[in-house]
Amino acid sequence: MSRLCGLCALCGEVSFAMLTGKRVVLGVCGGIAAYKVVELASRLTKEGALVDVVMTGAATKFVTPLTFQAITHRTVAVDMFRLEAEGNITHVSLGVAAEVVVVAPATAHSIAKLALGLADDLVATTALASAAPLIVAPAMEEQMYRHPATQENLAKLQARGAIIVPPAHGRLASGRIGEGRLAESEDIYRVIERTLAKRRDLAGRRIVVTAGGTQEPIDPVRYIGNRSSGKMGFAIAEAACARGAAVTLVSGPTALPAPLGVSLVHVGTALEMEAAVREAVPGADALIMAAAVADYRVAQPAEQKIKKEAGDLTIHLVRNPDILGGLADAPLVKVGFAAETEELLAHAAQKMRAKHLDLIVANDVSAAGSGFGSDTNRVIILAPDGAADELPLLPKREVAGRILDRVGALLARAKSPSGD
Q1: Which among 95, 269, 296, 411 counts the fewest CB atoms within 10 Å?
Q2: Catalytic residue chosen out of the listed positions 226, 320, 363, 377
Q3: What is the 3-state secondary structure (H, E, C) of the chain?
Q4: pLDDT tens-digit map of 119-136
């Protein structure tokens, strides 16, 4: 299902709604990072959430309410004593309706008020009036963040069940470099998404996911690789984490940020990926091999850069190990990927049989919208009994969800979660 979220520059595009109809209260406090929360509001709106922005008076000095209203297409609340048309009190009605309350940026002052239960502005009052999960994303100067009072207040909130999205390290408003930058909007979004996810069917499961391509060195400068971006594997890892799984992501080189809450293992070559996967799978419930592992490597990489003056170059290649095939007897659900350019189903079915897989995800990388680097994919999920689930063109996160639906069903039919 797609929706057009509006005509604003940040979110005026067709998107597949992931949070359709979810009620999110976004409390914006008076810090310079308030401008970054506009992007978060845009992302939530684009994904279908109903975003009610409430602002402190100080927050309006940094970003106007009109900016958030233009993004969310909903009235922005600033006045704590304003009555709604139906006679409801704003902070009470918003607090009751909220499915999650997010405070970002959470200043030292606002964190202290939340910890003490004070209610002298609309953000604090709405949070106090809500039984919904509370997500707090601090942003301030490093010394303020590290001060014992702030740390004690955050600990109090966390002890009461609040979810703290820790600040990042980087350039601060003062010009200093340190810890205190508001977390990236994508990281906050993922925490919101995970908090709102009602499906926790993978809770207690351990899942290993691979992503990206490998790079097989020719010399210290050059390598043999492929066009894999890692987006499909990263989407699977994030979606599995959102559904409660403990996820280890083994990834070749990518330009993607590390997914929040996922244990990320960086590798370069196929041999390194094999070693990392073998180390990760003991005790795991499933292995989803979305990486594009190089089939060949250079037998003897040159120790120094090969100069073009050497003339024509002949490279001797040897086969890399078959990571999935080498785990045929491992007691876990195994999912492979088949990126093909011709005879898609025949090649995928042969690969599934040869590697003794429980599922294989086949996609034609030469088709529009489903090649390497794209944000969408069109796949067919094959099972050993011949069943084929052909999906339409979908965002990779949605494809990830469909794959995990099948993995979850297989795990539900198998033994209880590992460690039980």
Answers
A1: 296
A2: 226
A3: CEEECCCCCCCCCEEECCCCCCEEEEEECCCCCHHHHHHHHHHHHHCCCEEEEEECCCHHHCCCHHHHHHHHCCCCECCCCCECCCCCEHHHHHHHHCCEEEEEEECHHHHHHHHHCCCCCHHHHHHHCCCCCEEEEECCCHHHHHCHHHHHHHHHHHHCCCEECCCEEEECCCCCEEEEECCCHHHHHHHHHHHHCCCCCCCCCEEEEEECECCEECCCCCEECCCCCCHHHHHHHHHHHHCCCEEEEEECCCCCCCCCCCEEEECCCHHHHHHHHHHHCCCCCEEEECCECCCEEECCCCCCCCCHHHCCCCCCEEECCCCCHHHCCCCCEEEEEEEECCCHHHHHHHHHHHHCCCEEEEEECCCCCCCCCCCEECEEEECCCCCEEECCCEEHHHHHHHHHHHHHHHHHHCCCCCCC
A4: 999 999 999 989 889 999
